[in-house]
Amino acid sequence: MTNLQTNTVDDLRGKFRGTILVPDNHGYDAARRIWNGMFDRKPAIIARCIGTSDVIHAVNFAREHNLLISVKGGGHNSAGKAVCDDGMMIDLSLMRRVLVDKYSKTAKVDGGCLLGDVDYETQLHGLAVSAGIVSHTGVGGLTLGGGFGWISRKYGFTIDNLISVEMVTADGKQLTVSAEENSDLFWGIRGGGGNFGIVTSFMVRCAAIGTEVFSGMLIKKFEDAREYIRFHRDYVRKLPDEMTVWLVVRHAPPLPFLQTNVHGKMVVAVPFVWLGEQDKGEELIKPLREVTESHGEAIGMNPWVAWQSVFDGLAEHGARNYWKSHHLKGLSDDCIDTIIEFAEKMPTDECEVFIPHMEGAPSRIPESDTAFAHRKTPFVLNIHTRWQNISDDDKCLAWAREFHSATEAFAQGVYVNFLSDEGETRVKDAYTEEVWQRLVQVKNRYDPNNIFKMNQNIKPS
Ligand SMILES: Cc1cc2nc3c(=O)[nH]c(=O)nc-3n(C[C@H](O)[C@H](O)[C@H](O)COP(=O)(O)OP(=O)(O)OC[C@H]3O[C@@H](n4cnc5c(N)ncnc54)[C@H](O)[C@@H]3O)c2cc1C
Predict the structure, then answer these.
(1) What pLDDT digit, counting tens, does each position of 139-150 carry?
(2) How far is residue 361 CA from its own chain's centroid?
(3) Cα dist. 156→113, 404, 447 in Å?
(4) φ, ψ for residue 220 (rounded to 5)?
(5) For the segment 80-118, what is each residue's pLDDT rounded down to a tens digit?
(6) Cα angle, residue 253 at apex, residues 407 and 38 outer, rounded to 5°
(7) In this predicted structure, what is the pLDDT of residue 2?
(8) 77 CB within 6 A, ligand 1
(9) 432 burial class (0-12, 13-18, 19+ CB within 10 angstroms)?
């Protein structure tokens, strides 16, 4: 173990109510694993916290022993920021309690919760939190970067529903952070990521969406991709906020509603969610059905919890992943042509081009209200490169990078949670200059020695 005496670690163990793991301990290898199989890092210590006092002990210990800290929420970050080599991984994954107050329609969500934990409890009351679309994503990282999903066009990003958080800062202090208390920090944690401390719980507003939503997926023919996407870019921008329609270009998974000869073929998947009466939803998707032929579709009233895990199987833990992303100013004809050109060269069957439509309630919130910049962006282009074998690394990385460069002319800005490890200049692209400068001031005040640096880092000045 790096320069740490066993008795020093035992001291920490003595104070700790969770588990302290070092490399030879049972459970160490499972605990250091994260979603992206590209990262095989080995922390000197894993501090598996079960409460705020554990988090404080862990932060103090790491600071006093000059250990690099990484914080694991759901461990989903594609840039692998949850795990470090040689330092201390502060693992929140045992902190997964969700307390719902059905009267005030709020939920207190522990810092290590997964999105599925939140749906599991809020749905008992027909409530949901506006967040992401894969149930095994962590609430922690997702929220601190912004957080969007199927209902955010109507209800705002996750940060737009954040009431307060409890957090532990670099000096081991516990703070309540809200619009009233430590308001500069409250501004910064809504988009600035894990730069300022460790959030042990989030208090969020829930939306009363009921337990079923009209939702589903049309699978369009790739031969018609150009025509379909040209239609899609204009049509979805006219839809009410209650309707969210996204685009995924990929090889068709073996979906039961598709004929077997379509499985594995390139297709354009069009998933949607409608928050309203089914009849009206049917009317709104009619043009999507009619514009070009579909290989098949599965549409109807779906339990929210089931819909929220519809994509889980395509994003299981352990595969090798490399994400490149940017916000698109629009989907011009040239941009669509470039997307199709690179889709045709997709290096593996697990890769996908993911294009969510973003406009709605979040774009009407003033940009200065939170640290999330580029709120008015219409579309995001996510290049999800995914494969199993190390021998495919070079071709997969090259495809993603070339695709990303080729679409740069159509792009402006990026969502911090979709960045890979791309350096400070690229992190800055997630913010405007004004927001960046303000984030640096918040960093100076709450983490002047940058002890929280395993993230999309904002260096103190
Ligand atoms: C399959 C998949 C689907 C996704 N879908 C969406 C989506 O629909 N919408 C969306 O907005 N994003 C989505 N994302 C991106 C997601 O928001 C980020 O990957 C996010 O970082 C995940 O958070 P996490 O807690 O799981 O990650 P981790 O890897 O655990 O953490 C990510 C970063 O946040 C920090 N962090 C985590 N928890 C805390 C905490 N409690 N306190 C302080 N810092 C913390 C970590 O230190 C690290 O720097 C998706 C990602 C994947 C891989």
Answers:
(1) 999 999 999 999
(2) 19
(3) 20, 27, 29
(4) -90, 160
(5) 999 999 999 999 999 999 999 999 999 999 999 999 999
(6) 60
(7) 55
(8) yes
(9) middle
Euclidean distance between CA atoms 290 and 280, whole angstroms: 16
CATH code given to domain 6-91: 3.30.43.10
**Class of the domain covering 98-209:** alpha beta
Q: Which atom of ligand 1 is nearest to the CA of 145?
A: 17
CB 121 within 8 A of CB 100: yes
Fold of 212-418: Vanillyl-alcohol Oxidase; Chain A, domain 3 (3.40.462)
Describe the chain by its helix, strand, coil percentages, rounded to 5: 35, 25, 40
CA 115/CA 122 separation, integer angstroms: 11
Query: What is the whole-number distance in angstroms between the Cα of residue 231 and the centre of ligand 1?
Result: 32
138 in contact with ligand 1, CB cutoff 6 A: yes
Q: Is 451 in the pocket of ligand 1 (CB under 6 A)?
A: no
Q: What's the rounded mean pLDDT across residues 40-58?
A: 98
Ligand 1 and 129: CB distance under 6 A: no
Rounded Cα distance, 300 and 180, in Å: 43
Residue 150 Ramachandran class (φ > 0 left, ψ -120 to 50 alpha, else beta): alpha
Give SS3 for 162.
strand
| Ligand 1 neighbour 132 (Cβ under 6 A) | yes
| 3-class DSSP state of 119 | helix
What is the residue-wise DSSP string for 189-256? HTTSGGGS-EEEEEEEE-EE--SEEEEEEEEEEGGGHHHHHHHHHHHGGGS-TTEEE-EEEEEPP--T
Measured at the CA of 246, the angle between CA 337 and CA 220, to 5 degrees, comes to 65
CA nearest to 368, candidates 432, 311, 308: 432
Give the residue whose CA is nearest to atom 47 of ligand 1: 71
Rounded to two decimals, what is the model's pTM? Answer: 0.97
Domain residue extents for the chain: 6-91, 98-209, 212-418
